[in-house]
Write a structure and sequence with these properties.
CATH superfamily: glutathione-dependent formaldehyde- activating enzyme (gfa)
Strand order of the largest sheet: 6-7-8-9-4-3-10-11
Helix content: under 10%
Distance between the termini: 21 Å
Number of helices: 2
Largest sheet: 8 strands, mixed
Number of strands: 11
Bound molecules: zinc ion
Structural class: mainly beta
Radius of gyration: 15 Å
Length: about 150
């Protein structure tokens, strides 16, 4: 994976659609995952979502993490307060991690997903031809392992 060339020395950078929110991470993500669940589809508006899981302490949002929305207990999503781009997801069962929407990261092209979560909810017409591990429901155990 390549390092960004900006002068902050950040490992990963990103921004929302309008540019009001910027993201900077000092370390590479622990895990990168597709999520096929219906919630992530609605959050992103895309047929499949992808997220990069970072240690919370390694990521900075400027000016902040955006507008917080809790539509389901135990899950908090945030969106740019100006343009509504999906920024993050935080899950009570995955403490210490923040899931940043892959598409807002400048290095998305270098950050290939490593697994498919909620494969059972995948849109039937969506075919992603890869050899990645597929979890019928949550990939919780794998994601928790990755955080160790
Ligand atoms: Zn924005
Ligand atoms: Zn999901």
């Amino acid at each position: 994976m390549t390092k960004s060339n900006d002068d902050t020395g950040a490992a990963v950078t990103g921004r929302c659609y309008c540019g009001a929110t910027t993201i900077s991470a000092t370390h590479m993500p622990r895990t990168i995952a597709y999520c096929h669940c219906t919630d992530c589809r609605r959050v992103t508006g895309a047929p499949v979502a992808a997220f990069a899981a970072f240690d919370e302490a390694t990521v900075t949002f400027s000016p902040d993490e955006g507008r917080k929305v809790v539509a389901n207990a135990g899950v908090m999503r945030t969106f740019c307060a100006s343009c509504g781009s999906p920024l993050t997801g935080r899950y009570d069962y995955l403490p210490g991690q923040v899931y940043v929407a892959l598409g807002v990261l400048d290095q998305a092209g270098d950050l290939a997903p490593q697994l498919h979560a909620h494969e059972s909810q995948r849109l039937v017409w969506l075919h992603i031809d890869d050899e990645l591990e597929r979890f019928a429901t949550t990939s919780r155990s794998r994601l928790l392992d990755a955080a160790k």
